[in-house]
Write a structure and sequence with these properties.
Blueprint (H helix, E strand, L loop, with lengths): L1 H10 L3 E5 L2 H12 L5 E3 L3 H5 L2 H7 L4 E3 L6 E4 L3 E3 L4 E5 L3 H7 L4 E7 L3 E2 L2 H20 L5 H5 L17 E5 L7 E7 L6
Parallel strand pairs: 1-10, 2-3, 2-4, 4-7, 5-8, 7-10
Antiparallel strand pairs: 5-6, 6-9
């Protein structure tokens, strides 16, 4: 499933580096950041888990949260289909907006746990099951999924703090943006 996903991402126009460990992923992120004057961060637990945010700060890089105009924007995906579609769900849309246009370079760090083999429906189900509840809790959102620890109805949730407001499906790499996926053969993030 891992290698199939790598090949599918390449067919969809993404530059892809498949690595075995988070340490290898960190080395790639740091190499990407060498020439970046500004680095945006999409709030990714995966990027944080590999140690990239801390290492970038230690190296003197200024990290800007959800930065639309930067040299390098780091984020992850909530789900990745085996046919190479990147899927993100967001509460405000700022993270997905920065992955579509603005930054000179976008780099995704995606763990194997986010790969789903059932297409877009399974990707969205995975996000509602595995990503939204812990993110809501981490961000202090008083959503039903954050309080219950599980999605309580998807489209039926009417919380003003709802995590599922903006859904972006990347069928291909967006035109005019340089985008790389670092696919890590370890579990990372939610």
């Amino acid at each position: 499933m891992f290698e199939q996903t790598v090949e599918a991402l390449k067919k969809r126009g993404f530059e892809v580096e498949a690595v075995a460990t988070r340490q290898e992923a960190l080395a790639l992120v740091m190499k990407e950041a060498e020439s970046a004057a500004s680095v945006g961060w999409g709030g990714s637990e995966s990027v944080k888990e590999i140690g990239a945010r801390a290492r970038l700060v230690e190296s003197g890089k200024e990290i800007r949260d959800h930065q639309l105009v930067c040299d390098l924007f780091l984020l992850s995906a909530n789900a990745l289909t085996t046919d190479g579609r990147i899927v993100n769900i967001d509460g405000t849309g700022n993270r997905v907006a920065a992955s579509i246009c603005g930054p000179k370079r976008v780099v995704y760090v995606i763990g194997r746990n986010k790969i789903v083999d059932g297409g877009l429906d399974e990707a969205i189900a995975r996000i509602r099951r595995c990503a939204c509840p812990p993110n809501a809790k981490r961000l202090g959102k008083r959503t039903p999924c954050g309080l219950a620890g599980a999605c309580v109805g998807g489209e039926g949730c009417d919380s003003p703090d709802r995590m599922c407001k903006v859904t972006a499906v990347f069928d291909r790499k967006p035109t005019g943006i340089s985008a790389k996926v670092i696919l890590v053969d370890e579990d990372l993030g939610y």
